[in-house]
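Board notes (copied after class):
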Amino acid sequence: MFFTSDPTERPVSPDAPAIALDHVSHTYDGGVLALDDVSLTVQRGEFLAVMGPSGSGKSTLMHSAAALEVPTSGTVRIDGRDTRGLSETKRTELRRDLVGFVFQSYNLVPSLSVSDNITLPLRLAGRAPDVAWIASLVDRVGLSGRLEHRPAELSGGQQQRAAIARALVARPAVVFADEPTGALDLRTAQEVLELFGEVAEDLGQTIVMVTHDPAVAARAGTAVVMADGRIVQTVQQPTAADLAGRLVAMSGV
């Protein structure tokens, strides 16, 4: 089988990075070059922010790295698996088994309880739930008393916490977070970012977070700054002031 239901047996090699892009380019219809020869390696357990202004290519980078889109050229590997040449069905299976997603708009199913939303990826994959793991996730995101509620009965921060638990439930190789704090107030956003940091540090979960906000990107261990479809800077242990200054310098203001 190409995949295994046991996450501990998944890696092709113990040293394989969570994500590896090698000279990836992506050109959309009409000749729009969204990614221009991008190479990027994300190691397991790394919390990486991809930052840049609108149109810099950060969303296309995420879509390519997550096997949501097929790049025009180059190689994308997820947990050591080469995504080149896979059918749409195989790419869907790969995402199901190896990738978790957290979106700005939460994307919870309104008619399902919080509990059913969290375990939905397992049911779709036909995998038995690990009760102890789910209980630990629910406790970590602080939703133990909200499992039978519907999403509409939760605050925005609680909905995003449920989405994070859903993204983690299948023990993915990587979680992609697309502007995960964009719909939250400042205090709640900080809580969600703290949760991401804890998940990376305590659970060794790889997280790739896309954002335009330097203050959000600064919560990651590493930030890459994009412009015109390329990674132009890589910053270790970034600060909000440093990242903001880099964006201003790039804009020529």
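Comment from the instructor: Helices lie at 58-65, 88-98, 114-125, 131-141, 156-168, 186-203, 214-217, 240-251. The chain has eight helices and ten strands.
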